[in-house]
Q: What sequence folds into this?
């Protein structure tokens, strides 16, 4: 018991929770933006892989880190555009298109990687984002290591939570996005373009998703591995329901998952002798499912989610 | 026939539709329709379902792109502008406002956000909501239409939603207002209030096009009437020269009388509800201590505004909702556990409220839908195999007897029009000679002819000895069909002896009965 208490009191546990949560924050914000506009984007898992690969490769080819971030976002946006063309303009099944994007995007990323580096056995490394060392603040006890020794990408993620919240709640654009996900005809009747709003949201959301992937290769690690995304995209799809499509709650959900995951690693070392390690590996997912079941029963879906809209259709 | 000369233009033109044409696949929804609107008048656009009223207005508002024709708008100086087609923004800029039959509101947003949607620059960080509120409160004061600005639309009643729709148009300084079946969902009192507000604004110079198929409304409220049939304009007249039969002749194309009710002769009790309570159902009230006996040979009308317990009541009789306390008995047998199958076998036939969703399986054929409630009968299946020939025979007979028109018995039932879907359901239900018929909103959204057909069938079933429960929000429907009238409010069912619209309307709104 004391050991578990110690885990919660240690700054490294909280720092790890925030670090693990960071890619999820990007991903869940991206999914939120798409779904608020009425488009489910199951391409998220593949877009994570694309973001991880392109960001890393751009830096490996000589771009600076922020240049890598921008390229990752653009690559994600490109796949978002693809998904938007299929689902918004042609009105195809969002499930099928999204899963197709995931398969296509992750394969294309791996293919590019292999084509560029055919002979390499151990992946080449880049110089990733370092922990920000803010004078005075980072030396504060507890808060210093937890908050002020994270990398710039974690700060970017937290900043984007605020930006997305502000756009959704305080601007006319946010109102229009929420309206187009609830009743596209209301938006059309008021003279706004349903297609533009939906496409823009999907592209921007996909760019955010790609940043989640880029965090993995450019901040958490320093190289690209196959399979490194490992279901994080799917977790985001669940978290956005948990968050009731609200940015603040999305942050909470991502942090909660980060905590479960950080806890699981530490419990393995504490109790690994008696309990098989796989139980701990499962734990965050099981706990997420439980949390989701409790919250999602009352989930308030955007009413037009999954519903294509065509102008002038009877 | 009335010639155009009787409708001489007295006031200046504000809007002129010329040669408006629209095809949907092989169907002509609007065929070269011309329509003029004068400043400060209320023009009623009448016609049966599918006559092209809504299509015409959607073209005016830019939601449909016409295949041919043009929209001309005139400003105060009589200067003429042609609107580019297919652009709602162009109609909005020309100060045309439209209130759709199916509200175009985002339910997850507040009233204020819905009204401001599209009026603000999307990429601007600043929102000037203070001046918007000022303008709105002046508008609400002047028009008498009020709505709670900070409440989310999903929490509003339909009457309030309608007011939001009108305010939305007025906020954009509409000088032409199009109302598509505005009273379809309102109580009589709400409708009267709305008409009074609109009339006041018309006196201040607003011009209104008002779509309806309720004749008494049109006669009471409009200045001029235009009638559409099968996508063509069949007549135009001043309301003061019009009467019911001349309008119906133009709408239907022949003299056609609504079936008149002869009082039924009640016989033995069929259904008995004793002190029934239920949980709330589908967002509506649950039943509270309902006692009711329905006899063979009578039509019992249940009037009320939706959400007051109708869906729990209909669910109970269909076997979908269990009573928490109380007893339900059919033909003197107390039903212990209500399931759809038990009720069906006890002799209850059901005409559901949402005919497209609950009444048919839209991807299955007409023939299949006609036998779907009796798949265990020997003429439908033998040893688990469907008897296709017998099913097809059955379908041919029923579609002929009940005049179900469509692309054929093997076509998907989704391809039928609303009126024909309802006839299909009637055929399926009435063919089994049920002892009790639950008809939930049986004529809602149907045109005059289809509605009269449905009414006739219900009268026939009653005279054959069935008990009929008619649930309706449309007071006219209840008054014209029911032998006995009950009002449902707040989950309670109260019988009324009155046949006065005002008295019943008041009871529907929860007021004291006299």
A:
């Amino acid at each position: 018991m004391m050991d578990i208490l110690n885990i919660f009191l240690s700054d490294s546990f909280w720092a790890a929770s925030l670090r693990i949560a960071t890619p999820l924050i990007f991903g869940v914000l991206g999914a939120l933006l798409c779904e608020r506009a009425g488009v489910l984007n199951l391409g998220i898992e593949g877009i994570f892989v694309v973001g991880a690969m392109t960001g890393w490769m751009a830096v490996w080819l000589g771009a600076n880190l922020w240049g890598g971030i921008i390229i990752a976002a653009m690559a994600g946006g490109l796949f978002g555009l693809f998904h938007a063309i299929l689902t918004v303009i042609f009105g195809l099944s969002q499930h099928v298109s999204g899963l197709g994007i995931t398969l296509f995007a992750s394969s294309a990323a791996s293919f590019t990687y292999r084509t560029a580096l055919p002979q390499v056995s151990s992946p080449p490394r880049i110089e990733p984002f370092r922990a920000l060392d803010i004078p005075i603040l980072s030396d504060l006890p507890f808060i210093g290591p937890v908050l002020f020794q994270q990398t710039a990408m974690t700060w970017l993620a937290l900043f984007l939570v605020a930006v997305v919240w502000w756009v959704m709640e305080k601007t006319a654009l946010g109102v229009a996005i929420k309206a187009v996900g609830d009743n596209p005809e209301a938006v059309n009747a008021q003279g706004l373009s349903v297609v533009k709003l939906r496409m823009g949201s999907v592209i921007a959301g996909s760019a955010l998703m790609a940043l989640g992937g880029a965090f993995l290769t450019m901040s958490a690690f320093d190289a690209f591995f196959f399979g490194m995304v490992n279901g994080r995209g799917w977790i985001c799809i669940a978290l956005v329901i948990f968050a009731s499509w609200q940015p603040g709650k999305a942050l909470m959900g991502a942090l909660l998952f980060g905590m479960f995951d950080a806890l699981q690693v530490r419990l393995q070392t504490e109790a690994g002798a008696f309990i098989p390690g796989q139980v701990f590996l499962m734990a965050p997912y099981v706990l997420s499912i439980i949390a989701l079941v409790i919250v999602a029963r009352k989930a308030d879906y955007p009413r037009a989610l999954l519903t294509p809209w065509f102008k002038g259709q009877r | 026939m009335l010639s155009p000369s009787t409708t001489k233009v007295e006031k200046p033109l504000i809007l002129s539709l010329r040669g408006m044409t629209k095809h949907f696949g092989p169907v002509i929804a609007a065929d070269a329709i011309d329509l003029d609107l004068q400043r400060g008048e209320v023009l009623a656009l009448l016609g049966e379902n599918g006559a092209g009223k809504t299509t015409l207005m959607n073209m005016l508002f830019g939601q449909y792109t016409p295949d041919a024709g043009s929209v001309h708008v005139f400003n105060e100086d009589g200067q003429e502008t042609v609107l580019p087609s297919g652009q709602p923004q162009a109609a909005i800029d020309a100060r045309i406002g439209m209130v759709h039959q199916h509200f175009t509101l985002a339910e997850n947003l507040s009233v204020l956000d819905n009204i401001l949607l599209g009026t603000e620059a999307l990429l601007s960080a600043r929102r000037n909501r203070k001046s918007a509120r000022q303008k709105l409160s002046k508008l609400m004061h002047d028009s008498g239409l009020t709505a709670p600005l900070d409440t989310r639309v999903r929490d509003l009643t339909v009457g309030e939603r309608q007011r939001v729709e009108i305010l939305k148009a007025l906020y954009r300084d509409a000088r032409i207002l199009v109302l598509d079946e505005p009273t379809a969902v309102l109580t009589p009192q709400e409708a009267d209030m709305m008409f009074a507000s609109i009339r006041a604004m018309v006196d201040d110079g607003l011009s209104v096009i008002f779509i309806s198929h309720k004749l008494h409304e049109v006669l009471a409220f409009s200045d001029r009437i235009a009638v559409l049939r099968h996508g063509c304009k069949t007549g135009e007249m001043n309301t003061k020269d019009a009467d019911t039969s001349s309008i119906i002749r133009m709408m239907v194309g022949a003299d056609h009388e609504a079936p008149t009710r002869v009082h039924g002769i009640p016989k033995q009790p069929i259904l008995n509800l004793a002190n029934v309570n239920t949980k709330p159902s589908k967002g509506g009230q649950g039943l509270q201590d309902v006692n009711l006996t329905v006899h063979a040979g009578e039509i019992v009308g249940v009037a009320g505004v939706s959400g007051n317990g109708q869906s729990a009541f209909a669910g109970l009789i269909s076997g979908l909702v269990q009573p928490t306390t109380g007893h339900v008995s059919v033909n003197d047998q107390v039903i212990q556990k209500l399931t759809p199958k038990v009720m069906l076998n006890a002799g209850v036939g059901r005409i559901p409220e949402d005919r497209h969703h609950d009444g048919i399986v839209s991807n299955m054929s007409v023939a299949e839908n006609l036998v779907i409630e009796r798949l265990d009968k020997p003429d439908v299946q033998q040893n688990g195999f469907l008897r296709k020939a017998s099913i097809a025979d059955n379908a041919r007979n029923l579609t002929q007897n009940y005049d179900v028109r469509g692309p054929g018995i093997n076509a998907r039932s989704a391809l039928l029009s609303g009126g024909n879907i309802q006839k299909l359901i009637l055929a399926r239900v009435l063919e089994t000679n049920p002892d009790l018929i639950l008809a939930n909103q049986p004529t809602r959204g149907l045109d005059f002819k289809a509605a009269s057909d449905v009414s006739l069938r219900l009268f026939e079933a009653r005279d054959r000895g069935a008990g009929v429960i008619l649930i309706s929000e449309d007071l006219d429907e209840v008054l014209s069909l029911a032998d006995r009238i009950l009002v449902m409010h707040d989950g309670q069912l109260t019988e009324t002896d009155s046949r006065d619209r005002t008295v019943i309307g008041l009871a529907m709104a929860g007021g004291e009965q006299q």
The first strand of chain B starts at residue 13 and ends at 24. Confidence is low (pLDDT under 50) at residues 1-9 of chain B. The domain at 1-95+175-256 of chain B is CATH 3.40.50.300 (Rossmann fold).
